[in-house]
Structure formats: C-alpha cells, structure tokens
Amino acid sequence: MSDAAEIINTVKGQGDIYLPKTIQRNERLARGLVPKLARLAGKLPFADDLAAAYYAARDPLTPVKAKAVLFGAAAYFVMPADLVPDVVVGLGFTDDATVLATALSVVGMHVKERHRALARKLLALPEPVKDPG
Known about the structure:
By secondary structure, the chain is mostly helical. 56% of the residues lie in helices and 5% in strands. The chain is built from 7 helices and 2 strands; from the N terminus they run αββαααααα. The longest helix is centred in the middle third of the chain and has 15 residues, at 64-78. The radius of gyration is 16 Å and the shape is globular. It is found in: Endomembrane system. Pfam families: DUF1232.
C-alpha cells in the first residue's frame, strides 16, 4: 500500500493519533492477548517476549510501522485459526513463536526495557539479577 493510500485508510486511535486501519484491527484482536497469556504463561517459553512486544505496540513512542508488525504478531497469537493448531502437543505454538521471532528480528529495537518490565510484572516474573561485575 502506498503512503498516500495508507493515509487515506487511517482512523483516529488512542490519544487522538491517526493509525492505519490494519493496526486498529490488529489492536482489537490483540486485546485477547492478556487473557490468553494468563492461561498459558507457564507453558510458553516466549510469553515474556510476546507481552513485551504487546506493550511496545501500545506505546505512543513506538513508530507506526513497528506497531503494525508487533500488533500483527500479537494478533496472530490470539487468532483461533492457526497454521498449526495450538492444541497439537509439542508443535502447537511453534508457528506463533516463529511469527514473534520474525517480528522481533525486524522491529525488536523498539521493544525497550520499560516494555519488558511491564511484561514481567504482568506475568509475575522476577526481575533479572544484575551482574555485580
């Protein structure tokens, strides 16, 4: 989509910021992320990365294109239709992990320590131990 078409296909989001409609749609889908993460957090080795990506996507300081990628990854996680159904033992979340890893490889520099701290708080994870040396 061209930049002009993207501007035409915008809606007013939180904080009166205009966002492309696809970001708004993915943000609506991603709202189901927190309840699903709460149910599955102990079973997902990438739960903290997913929650941090979600918080980065909701951050007004994150660039719009990065938001689109991060919301897309979060929305894929909560979508009921998956490439590999989540109920398949051993393989169910591999596609979700791959989508998240790809998203973080592209826009991971926008996931800041403040987002990771919020993710740890949400998932009741301990703070990392700082190296004294």
